[in-house]
Amino acid sequence: MRRKLLQSRVIIITTLVTLSIASAVWCATVVWDSSNFSMDERKWQAPPEGLVPGADNGTGDGSHHPTDDCGICHAFNGVASSKILTLSATIYDSRAARKPVPGAEVIYQDVEGTYYTMTANDLGIMWTEKPMYGDSRIWPYDSDDSQTWRYKTWVRAKGGVRPMMTMPQVGGAGGMIPRMSCNMHHVLSGTLGGLWASPDSTLRSYPEQGLSYQKHIFPILRSKCGPCHIPGKTVAERGAGDIFDYGADLDLLTYAGSSIAVGNTVYDKLGIESIVNPANPDVSLLFAKTVYGSLHGGGSFWDMSDPDYRALRQWIAEGASDN
Fold first, then answer.
1. Best-predicted range by mean pLDDT among 72-81, 128-137, 154-163, 256-265?
2. 169-182 confidence digits (pLDDT tens)
3. Which end of the chain has the lower number of beta carbons within 10 A, N or C?
4. pLDDT category, 321, cuts 50, 70, 90?
C-alpha cells in the first residue's frame, strides 16, 4: 500500500495575522472534557492559564542521580518505594540534552480534566507525588496500573510552549512497576532526544548572508521539527482506539522528502523544499505553522525577531538552496 500525496506546492492564501486570530477564536470555543480526550482531538489544545507554576512539585531537593530515570527506583516495587514519584522528568534547552532549564514548567492533564503543574529545579529536574488516574476506556482497566494512565502535557520555558503531541500509555511491567518518567524515552540515546522546551537560538550565531542548508538550517529543523516530521511511519496507536498521525506527511529532516518502506507500506513524505516560498518568504507554510499564535499541533517556536526565524527567512530569501 502506498500513501498518496499531493505533489503540488502548497499555496498559502491566509495571512499570519488572520491565522493567529482564527486559532485563538477556535481554541476558545472548544470545551475540553473526557468526550474528546484523544490525540487527534487534543492536538490544538492550548495549555491552561491561571495555574500557579510548581503548585504540585514533589518534596525533597532532587539533587541525587541527575538525568537518570527516577521511576526505576521511585516506584511501588522499586528500591526507593518509600517515596513513589508518579511523574518525573529532566528538562533541557534542546534535543541535544546538554543544558538544563531551571524553572521550566510541565503541565499535566488527565482524562478527568485534572491539571498538575511542576517546575524544574536548578538541575532541570521536576517530579511529583500526586496521584495519577487512568482512562477507563483502556481494558482491562485498573487505576493502579500505570498502563491505563493517559495524559496530555505541555512544557513551558522562557516564554515558549512545547506540547506533547501523543498521549501515550505509561510504561511499566503490566502494573508491577507503574512509573511515569519522561527519562524513559527522552534521552540522548533515544530517537526522541532530550525532553526540551526553549525558544532560544539553535546555533550561537548565524551569518548575515550566504546561509547553508547543511550548516545552519538543518540543525534548526532537527531541533525544532525533527521530533515529529521524520521519515517513515509517524502514526501513534494507543489504547481506547486512539490513532493519530503526528507527522502530517512531512519529513523535515530531508530537503526533497523521503520514501521509506515499513513492512508492506511505503511512506512518501514531502521535504522542506515543499513548505518554503523563495518568491515571498514570509508566506511560507513553515512560518504560517510555527510563529507565535499560529495553529500548529507541535506548538509555536519563534516570532519574527528571533535568530532562528531570521536565519530561516534569510536562507529562503536567498533561494532555499540545498547547499
1. 256-265
2. 665 544 455 567 78
3. N
4. very high
Q: Residue 84: exposed, middle, or buried by beta-carbon count in 10 A (0-12, 13-18, 19+)?
A: middle
The residue written with cell numbers 519563534 in the block is 302
Could you tell me which residues are beta bridge partners of residue 266?
A: 2, 261
pLDDT tens string 173-207: 444 555 677 877 777 666 666 666 677 888 999 99
Residue bearing the bigger pLDDT, 76 or 227:
227
Largest CA distance in the chain: 62
The C-alpha atoms of residue 283 and residue 317 are separated, in whole angstroms, by 11
User: For position 243, what pLDDT does the model report?
Assistant: 87
Global confidence as pTM: 0.82
What are the residue boundaries of the structural domains of the chain, listed by start? Answer: 16-21+201-317, 46-200
Non-local (6+) Cβ contacts of 233 within 8 A are 260, 262, 265, 267
Strands 242-245 and 235-238: antiparallel
Q: Looking at the predicted structure, is the pLDDT value of residue 143 above 80?
A: no
User: Cell for 147?
Assistant: 498502563
Residue at 39: amino acid letter: M
